[in-house]
């Protein structure tokens, strides 16, 4: 098994499903309640799906798979996924 990559590594594959860059999206873990950017989570790419784990409690927050049958996203371990809008990003820079 290879070492985990950081959550930035899943942003490209997830762009197949989402039209926004999710690396900066805030993920709230359903298990421990901690929140942080997706890029700060651990990605395990060796499973049949890409598996993202919470950096605080190591529980799975999401799984992503893409093959000839389609795209599948399991977010059972995610309590909340928050994506800043362009307006939110502009306001934070002001």
From TrEMBL:
Domain of life assignment: Bacteria
Pfam families for this protein: DUF6510 (PF20120)
Protein name, per record: DUF6510 family protein
Biological source species: Amycolatopsis dongchuanensis
């Amino acid at each position: 098994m290879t070492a985990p990559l950081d959550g930035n590594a899943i942003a490209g594959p997830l762009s197949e499903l989402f039209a926004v860059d999710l690396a900066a999206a805030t993920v709230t873990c359903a298990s421990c309640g901690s929140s942080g950017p997706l890029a700060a989570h651990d990605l395990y790419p060796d499973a049949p799906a890409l598996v993202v784990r919470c950096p605080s409690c190591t529980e799975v927050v999401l799984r992503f798979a893409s093959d000839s049958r389609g795209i599948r996203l399991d977010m059972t371990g995610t309590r909340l996924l928050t994506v800043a809008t362009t307006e939110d990003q502009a306001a934070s820079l002001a």
